[in-house]
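Good morning,

Attaching, inline, the backbone tokens for the sequence recovery test we're adding to the shared suite. The designed sequence is right after.
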């Protein structure tokens, strides 16, 4: 689970940055970095043994659903 969250965070950050650099799209940059930050939080929550895996996965699923709505 953790590697998926880390990969998503990286890809979203890169994608938002590329959208900004190529087209000057501030919306791409803001949304890409915002979603990347949430996935980074999910990654850290999974790594933290005090946080339940179920909670971290639910946050990740919610973010994935929001990302699906916006795309």
């Amino acid at each position: 689970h953790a590697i998926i969250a880390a990969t998503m965070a990286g890809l979203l950050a890169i994608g938002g940055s590329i959208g900004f650099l190529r087209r000057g799209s501030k919306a791409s940059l803001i949304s890409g970095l915002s979603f990347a930050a949430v996935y980074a939080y999910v990654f850290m929550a999974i790594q933290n043994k005090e946080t339940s895996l179920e909670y971290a996965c639910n946050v990740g699923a919610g973010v994935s659903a929001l990302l699906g709505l916006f795309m």
